Amino acid sequence: MFHVLGAGYYISKNHFTGEKSPDRVTQAFEIELFTTGGGKSRLGTEVYERAAGSLLVAKPGQARCSYQAFEAYYVHFTCDEPAFAKTCLEPLVGFRPFSDMVGLTERFLGIAEAHTLRGAGYELIEAGELLRLIGELHRTAKVYTVGRYAAYCGNIGRAVALMKREFGEKLPLADMAREANMSPSFFHRVFLEQTGVTPHEYLTRIRLDHARKLLLGSGMSIAEISFACGFSNQSYLNYLFQKRFRTTPGAYRQAGMAAGDPGGEIKNTTKNTVEQSNFLF
C-alpha cells in the first residue's frame, strides 16, 4: 500500500541557508511535525505560521516552500491504493497549529527507525507505524474540531506548554488544571479525550524524551539525568525507560555513542539522503 521515500528528522539549515527554501511541487504525501517555532510554511496558496507542535500534511501536486529555519520529524510516501488515499489521506491535508507532539513523535520515530535500519520485515513495520500515525491524526482531528471537548483545545495546549517548561519539577495534577483554568477532575477527563493518555502519562513521556536526548547529548550521569528530568530516583527512570524504549538508559547511551549520534535524533541515513532531503523539502 505504501512506499516510504524518506523518514527521519530534518534540520533546514543543513540544506538551505537563506530566508526561503526553493519553490517546489510535491511528488508524494508528506507529513511533517515541527519541533521548533518561528517562521512560516506555504502550502498551495495558504501561508501558515509554524510553532513547536504544528503539523503539516501535503498531497502530491501541491506547491510548497518554507520561510526561515526550522526542524521537523517527517515522513514522505506514496500510496498505491486510490480509494484509501481519497478517504483516509486527503481529508488530513492542511495545517494544524497544535498537535499531540509527544504521542506523534513516537510514531515518527518508529517509521524512521524501520526505514533507516532496514532490518528483516522493515517494510511491514514502517507501513504499520505509518497506519498508526494516520489513525492517530484522524482521531485527534475529530477531537479537536467536532469532539465534545473541542472548545477546550487551547486550555489543554496551555497545560502541555507548562509540562514542557516545568517537567524537571514536581508537577501535580492541580497545577496543570490551574494552568488550563479547569477543575482537576474535568481537566483529567478532557486531557484524556484529546490526547488519548492521562496527564501523568503525557508528562512521563515528555520526561523520558528529554532523558533520551540528555543520554546522547550530554555528559551527565544517569543519576543526574534522572533528577534533571523530574524522576525521583535512577531506578524509577530505569524502569520507565526500559518499559517504553525496550532498553536500559545505559545501553541506549552506549548504542548511541557507537552509532555516532550525539544529538539524540534518528536521521535518515539511507542512500542519497542529501539529494532526497533537498528534493523533498
Helix content percent band: 40-55%
Order of helices and strands: EEEEEEEEHEHHHHHHHHHH
- What is the makeup of the main sheet? 5 strands, antiparallel
The Cα radius of gyration reads: 19 Å
Beta-strand percentage? 15-25%
The computed structural class is alpha+beta
Helical region count?
11
| Global morphology | globular
- Cα(first) to Cα(last) distance is 23 Å
Largest sheet: spatial strand order: 1-8-3-6-9
Average of pLDDT: 86
Number of strands: 9
Which regions contain 5 or more consecutive residues with pLDDT less than 50?
261-281
Task: Offer a quick outline of the entry.
Helix content is 49%, strand content 17%.
Walkthrough of the structure:
The protein is α+β, with helices and mostly antiparallel strands. Helix content is about 50%, strand content about 15%. It has eleven helices and nine strands. The strands form two sheets. A five-stranded antiparallel β-sheet has the order 1-8-3-6-9. A four-stranded antiparallel β-sheet has the order 2-7-4-5, with no helix packed on it. Helix 2 packs antiparallel against helix 3 and helix 5 crosses helix 6.
